[in-house]
Amino acid sequence: PTLTSYSIVNNNILRTETSRIIVGVSDIEDDNDDMTITVQHRFSTEDWSSTYFGQPWYNTSSNKWEANFTPTTTASLGEYDIRVRVTDLDSGSSSWSLHLDNVTVGNNNPILEDYSLSNSSVLRTSTMVIGIDSSDIEDLESLHTVTVQLRFDDGWFDNLLTDIWYDNNDNQWKTEFIPAADSELGTYDLRIMANDTDEGSSDWTTYDDVITVINNNPTLQSMTFSSGEVLRTETIVIWVDVSDIEDVESSHIVEVQYKLSNSEWSTDLLSSLWYNASSGYWETNFTPTTTAELGNYDFRVYIEDTDEGDTGWIAEYDLEVINN
To answer: Phi and psi dihedrals of 251, rounded to 5?
Structure first.
């Protein structure tokens, strides 16, 4: 018998995809469909094999023999040689028909499936968890190399992200974003890329304005008085203790006001506030005049940081002005 023709459909495929070999045969004695063909493949210097070929069949429409070539997920990447021969009913065979570098097998790149955030916003110095799901026909997700970066305005960075790890319980990659005390406030872009064990890449996928970094507002720790009551014309000191994760205490704006009963809030009897570096408190003096109303005065305090975050007015303090 002889081989009369050879062709291939899809000679550039990915692992698990299929090429089809089409072979024309002829024999003086036997019908074409009574004969059989043998097809084999070889990668580089490996031995010939038929592992990736399915069972050949005779196509009665084209009157040719065909066979599917389907490399597995672990097949070597690169060029494959193909050889084929035909055998008749008397066990006579043609010589091998050799086709060098006939099929190219490529890698299936990983796919970035999705991502998740433990929260869409995060306070400076707090932690947000970013979860990443990837997939691959060939590799386990845990074998991927996943890269995550953030951007605020210009320039991608990853220095505020922890080392990424694979969480076997949740079956996803994770990293933590911990903005610094001086990180920019506002929305950040996120981009993710997955790479497999064959250096295949999903390329970058970018998600715009998905993370918001917000300010930690200042906190009033205490407001104390040098005395619980004061005579007209005498002075007491009011200490205000402030804390803030981001700002030093001396950088805050602090306001103190007072009122008697249903009167309006005022600062007339208070001195200007100053920061006492020795005590670590903001201080002001309260000195009622000789004509100041007697009775219990309410006090309130307001604190604002350098990012315009504030406590709002806090009114929980009182002091009694008494007669000389």
So the answer is: -85, -5
Say if strands 186-195 and 165-167 run parallel, antiparallel, or are unpaired. Answer: unpaired
d(CA 133, CA 142): 10
Strands of the sheet containing 64-69, edge to edge, are 2-9, 19-26, 64-69, 57-59
- Where does 158-313 show beta strands of DSSP type E? 165-167, 172-177, 186-195, 205-214, 219-225, 229-231, 236-243, 253-260, 274-276, 281-286, 295-304
What is the C-alpha to C-alpha distance for residues 70 and 14, in angstroms, rounded to an integer?
9
Tell how strand 314-322 and strand 229-231 pair up. parallel
Residue 125 tokens read as 């110095």
Taking residue 305's Cβ as centre, other Cβ atoms within 10 Å add up to: 23
- Tell me 53's DSSP state: B
CB 220 within 8 A of CB 241: yes
In a 3-state reduction of DSSP, which class is residue 312? coil
Rg over alpha carbons for the chain, rounded to the nearest Å, is 40
- Cβ atoms of 84 and 38 within 8 Å: the answer is yes
Q: In what order do the strands lie in the sheet with 236-243?
A: 219-225, 236-243, 281-286, 274-276
| pLDDT values of the chain reduced to their tens digit, one per residue, 324 residues | 999 999 999 999 999 999 999 999 999 999 999 999 999 999 998 999 999 999 999 999 999 999 999 999 999 999 999 999 999 999 999 999 999 999 999 999 999 999 999 999 999 999 999 999 999 999 999 999 999 999 999 899 999 999 999 999 999 999 999 999 999 999 999 999 999 999 999 999 999 999 999 999 999 999 999 999 999 999 999 999 999 999 999 999 999 999 998 899 999 999 999 999 999 999 999 999 999 999 999 999 999 999 999 999 998 889 999 999
Give SS3 for 142: helix
